[in-house]
Amino acid sequence: MKENVEYRPLTSQYDSALAKLIRINLEAYHLDIPGTVYFDESLDHLSRFYSFDGRAYYVLLQNGVFIGGVGFSEFDGDCCELQKLYLADAARGQGLGCQMIAYIENRAREMGYKRMYLETHSSLQAAVHIYEKTGYVEIPRPENVVHSTMNKFYLKEL
What is the pTM of this model? Predict the structure, then answer.
């Protein structure tokens, strides 16, 4: 049930909860290893990272409670990268993942992006499923991949 769902721009108020949610999710899939966002220096202060032009991140609240978030950052020209789509376990199975993707794609279009890229890992089967379901097409590994452990790469025309 998607009752009382609200998106808010990421502020420092949510930095700690977001970093915790990301780490819990990565630990659950044994991806708390080098080459993932788990060890990014900016993870505990994502509101700073997303405060620059060409970037945006939104937290998702349900009935006023933080349950997840999604964002994007510049990637290559008119292409941005979908980043850090995470949901709390209790919020899964409600169709929120697809809703979050649609929301962030619209925000990216508003900023002038024409394509959206993303990277994920084959062990994240639910993520792979949702990306393919929402129209992302698998592509070869780009040269400028930052998170070396990721092994699946997707692109979508916006």
Answer: 0.92
